[in-house]
Specification:
This protein has 216 residues and is α/β, with parallel strands linked by helices. Helix content is 18%, strand content 31%. The protein has 5 helices and 13 strands. It comes from Gracilinema caldarium (strain ATCC 51460 / DSM 7334 / H1).
């Protein structure tokens, strides 16, 4: 059985508190800070293995001096990839197959949409802890233990066709017609654990992070 190599990527912008995303921080094999994501990375008690980006939002660059120079990959501001893309490519180059993004909310809407668009690519992150939600990419099955009445929203991702099924949700996903621009918003958990199945294509499933506090 192949063991997945797990990476945490801390990115700039608004993000969750430590307590909200604690269930997704356990024992990473690799920690990467993208630009000002370094601030949250350090605040969460991690020392990053790599720091990447143009550092235009980091502020005090002197804090980089406490890390080995060969682990700080600084790029020009004018470049072909976002800091998040650079961090993702580095994680994949290091052999990681399970990647969690942390942060990236607030600020410019184009930055937010750019992160969301990453999940449409053939090679994509596995999950994203925003300021208040967990966004999970489902290409087969996602099963979560969540309190009753937790909101669950589902969006098609990547290329179609799409087909989905579910268990433990108030409004079943089976038989729905999915296409670009379609979504299932504010479904509710009726039975825990609940599951979303990607029978064809891939889906993004969004649930509030605070729901995991209620079951911890």
């Amino acid at each position: 059985m192949t063991t997945k190599k797990r990476a945490l990527i801390f990115i700039g912008g608004a993000g969750p508190t430590f307590d909200l995303c604690k269930p997704f921080l356990d024992k990473p094999d690799l920690v990467i800070a993208a630009d000002s994501g370094l601030l949250r990375c350090e605040a969460f008690g991690f020392s990053p293995d790599w720091i990447v980006g143009d550092m235009d939002s980091l502020g005090d660059l002197s804090r980089l001096s406490s890390y080995p120079k060969d682990r700080v990959l600084q790029y020009p501001v004018d470049k072909d990839y976002t800091d998040t893309e650079l961090a993702l490519n580095l994680a994949w180059d290091q052999g990681c197959t399970d990647i969690t993004l942390i942060g990236g909310g607030g600020g410019r809407t184009d930055h937010l949409l750019a992160i969301t668009a990453l999940f449409d690519r053939p090679r994509a992150p596995n999950r994203w802890c925003t300021e208040t939600e967990l966004v999970s990419l489902v290409d087969h099955e996602l099963t979560l233990s969540l309190p009753t009445d937790t909101l669950v929203s589902v969006f098609p991702a990547g290329s179609g066709p799409w087909d989905a099924d579910s268990r433990g949700l108030q409004w079943p996903l089976r038989g729905l017609s999915w296409f670009r621009g379609f979504f299932g918003l504010s479904n509710r958990v009726t039975t825990s654990p609940c599951s979303v199945y990607a029978c064809a294509g891939r889906f993004l499933v969004m649930v509030p992070l605070e729901a995991f506090l209620e079951i911890s």
